Amino acid sequence: MDPRWLPTWALWVIALAGTGVLGTVLFWMMPPALRTGEGGRSVVLGLGLFLVFAALGGSPRGMLWFAGGGFAAAAIPLLWMGRLPADMPSAKDPAIRAHPRYKEVARRGAIAGIGIAVLTVAWIIAAVVIARS
Description:
By secondary structure, this protein is mainly alpha-helical. The protein is built from 5 helices and no strands.
């Protein structure tokens, strides 16, 4: 999966853009307490680890190509899901099920998860078609 028609720097731009879009959407949808706490650290750590692995990987072209589009595609269903309620506890907190909007948020989250899976598969298929053409 090596889109040879793009220089490596352009693939880095695509990957950084996709990473930025996903990170921005995740921070936008999180409640303030979660954004400044464990949730925010998890997003920064996860996206940062991707960038480190891509930088240290011998030939990161395929990783950069797939991640750039895949991260952006994953952000679309999260945008549809919308912001979480400001008083929503962390998913690790057992009190989350008692939140008055838990069922609504869980339903939207499940739909967004399906959307992420569908758009990721669609991006992989599109990326393979583009790379082979």
